[in-house]
Amino acid sequence: MAEEKRSLPTLPGPRPDVLSTVEVQTTLYGNYNCLVRRVNRSGIFLQTMDLLPLGTEVRMRFADGEGKGIVAVGLVQAHHYINYADLHGPNAIAGMSVRFKSFEAEKDPVRVGQETLQ
């Protein structure tokens, strides 16, 4: 009997690297910037060496360059450690997958705990 090939569900179209930054905000672990590598309908891959614990809720502030923006709320779902080689030799990156929970239009400065971010 021939073995049936099964493929994983994918989004239509290519998923190119985004290569943008996003401000990541947490109540327990502080705030910092991450490099956005991939985005799809359900989540985002953030390249960073400062991985947050699985299940951590994060707020990600995306700015449009005019001071306006959108805030995505999500949960850290997975950690990734990627080893590869390029023209310069062996290399590695680390990052985390965050699944989106909700989106908010940013009207006021973002508040995290007692701190107000502009």
Radius of gyration, CA atoms, in whole angstroms: 17 Å
End-to-end distance: 63 Å
The top-level CATH class is: Mainly Beta
Number of E-state strands? 8
Stated plainly, the CATH topology is called Thrombin, subunit H
Topology pattern, helix = H, strand = E: EEEEEEEE
Cα shape: globular
In CATH, the architecture is Beta Barrel
Number of domains: 1
| Tally of individual helices | 0
What characterizes the major β-sheet? 6 strands, antiparallel, barrel
Unreliably modeled segments: 6-13, 110-118
Percent in helix:
under 10%
Mean pLDDT over all positions? 79
Report the oligomer: single chain
Structural class: mainly beta
Spatial sequence of strands, sheet with the most strands: 1-2-3-6-5-4
Beta-strand proportion: over 45%
CATH superfamily: predicted glycosyltransferase like domains
Describe the protein's architecture and organization.
The chain has 118 residues and is an all-beta fold. The protein has a single domain, classed as predicted glycosyltransferase like domains (Thrombin, subunit H), CATH 2.40.10.220. The chain is 0% helix and 59% strand. The chain has no helices and eight strands. The strands form two sheets. The protein has a six-stranded antiparallel beta barrel. Strands 7-8 form a two-stranded antiparallel sheet. The radius of gyration is 17 Å and the shape is globular.
